[in-house]
Amino acid sequence: MKITVKSIMAMKQKGEKITALTAYEALFAGFIDSAGIDVVLVGDSAGMVFAGHDTTIPVTMDDMVYHAGSVRRSVKNALLVVDMPFMSYQVSVEEALRNAGRLVKEGGAEAVKLEGGRSVVPQLRACVEAGIPVMGHLGMTPQSVHRFGGFLTQGKSPEAARMLLEDALAVQEAGAFSLVLEKIPAALAAEITQKLEIPTIGIGAGVHTDGQILVTQDMLGMYEKFKPKFVRLYARLAEDIRTALNRYAEEVRAGAFPADEESY
Ligand code: KIV
Question: Mind listing the pLDDT tens digit for each residue in 78-106?
């Protein structure tokens, strides 16, 4: 069944948990879609996981259009959400609209995601009014890594928690259909989830959000640069990949590959 923005919003009302994972290219996107995951996010984490940068900051609009187009070709049922990269929406409402439009027209996005609260409300509202659904993103928003001084847990002090709640309400009021909450205390995520009508999707935000998202290469045990505490390993593919590559190299060197049945 095709998942839409409407069905994601209805899931909160029905008390059904929302499942979400990231994808950057067609192969993984196909696995994720056929597993029945509700939301595929083309995350700007592509900059770290796919392109090898230390942060998401260098990711460009052209990068995101390319990744979105690759994922689009494999996603049949899931809702396809695409991240707006750093500085593609912060400068002005006009730039935000133009860039969100590119992700929809050229990348096949059904919704875009942008980071921030009250400071991005004009951009968020303009996208929604132009017919582009928006997913918000609050808490440890990776595009602000330099302001935070690292990928640190947010919303820990009572004042920071109050600001986050106000941002969440502002994002909802501006028309977002859902909100990612990243790396914040579970109790705060539960409070925000309870106060919002739109669904929250947590990553490192405890179990009481309306859904969960992880970076696919993290949960499959492929991305080894760092492993946040909130990642559960559902596979250890890096080990399998290394074993396979070493075996291939050994067999080529030993003349054991290819065999007769693999030759013409
Ligand atoms: O870029 C990304 O992958 C994300 C998710 C981790 C929420 O924003």
Answer: 999 999 999 999 999 999 999 999 999 99
